[in-house]
Amino acid sequence: MTERPVQRELVGIAIGAGHFGPIQLDSWRRVRGARIEAVCDRNLTAARSAAERFTVPRFGAAVEELVDQVRPDFIDVVTRPESHRELIEFAIDRKLHVLCQKPLAPSLEEAQTLVRRCNDAGVRLMVTEIWRWQPWYRKVRQMITAGEIGQPFHARFVSRRSDGRGHAPFQRQPYFRDMPRLLIYESVIHLIDVVRFLCGRITSVQCLHRQLNPKIAGEDFCLLTLTTAANVTVTIDAHRHGPAQQSQTSEHLVVEGEAGSLELRTDGAILLRSIDGDVRELRTEWPAEGYLGDSCRACLQHFADGLHTGEPFETAGNDNLETLAVVFAAYESAASGSRVTL
């Protein structure tokens, strides 16, 4: 038997030590074939704290200096959207591959330019869309693909969070309060990507959104109706003004097909209902370690594997442009009061 050659461990720099930075650093510790060698943040105290907490050898406030010291293969961008362009353009100049948090850019045009520049430079770009890597959504897709409910015709997502309530909402990410576009741009973008993952290409969107908490600048409630090329109608009902609750999954989902339906409950159970009314409950021991079923680690592993093998990323820059197009079409629909065709 021929032994596989030992792969060189890829080296990266994590940029951003705010709310989500530590979640990704924790996940990187369990990724095969890649490691984080340095943490960068303009707040040097935050960079030092994150490096010490996750045993990362280096830290600093200047990405240029860290790149010169480390000579990395990639950067992991875990910063706010308005900073992404500068960091990605820097990576292009240094020929570094990029993993970048969503949303990729504040406008579709800016995102298209960044993707085109990466493609032209031979820099591989993947957007950190973690939601589709939640193991329950992987299972739901497997069941749909296996034909367990027949051809789907309708799906419904319900998402509730409580962190948008009160006089000082979004305690973990207080900058959310000042964002003129919030819920769809920052949160529902995940579900739009999951819709594409489960139901295929989105062809139209109609959106209603509003602001429930007067202490914020953007919307914190929305209703979206999406149609797909496979003729599936999908509704997304989301707000961050709900009661506090503990749940395994982040949303409640029902997918209806011509041969039955499946329901993903927030306790992690999946109910499969036949067209005759028979009900089967699937209870799976989802991973307890890490973020939301260890989805962050799975996403990072996919990035590392893709760099090693050259296989396409599920959420490569080109792919993510389709998700962003739906996001900005949703705002266009809400402003015009009409359906937007993509």
Automatic annotation (TrEMBL):
<feature type="domain" description="GFO/IDH/MocA-like oxidoreductase">
    <location>
        <begin position="137"/>
        <end position="263"/>
    </location>
</feature>
<dbReference type="Pfam" id="PF01408">
    <property type="entry name" value="GFO_IDH_MocA"/>
</dbReference>
<dbReference type="InterPro" id="IPR055170">
    <property type="entry name" value="GFO_IDH_MocA-like_dom"/>
</dbReference>
<feature type="domain" description="Gfo/Idh/MocA-like oxidoreductase N-terminal">
    <location>
        <begin position="15"/>
        <end position="128"/>
    </location>
</feature>
<dbReference type="Pfam" id="PF22725">
    <property type="entry name" value="GFO_IDH_MocA_C3"/>
</dbReference>
<dbReference type="InterPro" id="IPR051317">
    <property type="entry name" value="Gfo/Idh/MocA_oxidoreduct"/>
</dbReference>
<dbReference type="GO" id="GO:0000166">
    <property type="term" value="F:nucleotide binding"/>
</dbReference>
<keyword id="KW-0560">Oxidoreductase</keyword>
<dbReference type="GO" id="GO:0050112">
    <property type="term" value="F:inositol 2-dehydrogenase (NAD+) activity"/>
</dbReference>
<dbReference type="InterPro" id="IPR000683">
    <property type="entry name" value="Gfo/Idh/MocA-like_OxRdtase_N"/>
</dbReference>
<protein>
    <submittedName>
        <fullName>Inositol 2-dehydrogenase</fullName>
        <ecNumber>1.1.1.18</ecNumber>
    </submittedName>
</protein>
<dbReference type="InterPro" id="IPR036291">
    <property type="entry name" value="NAD(P)-bd_dom_sf"/>
</dbReference>
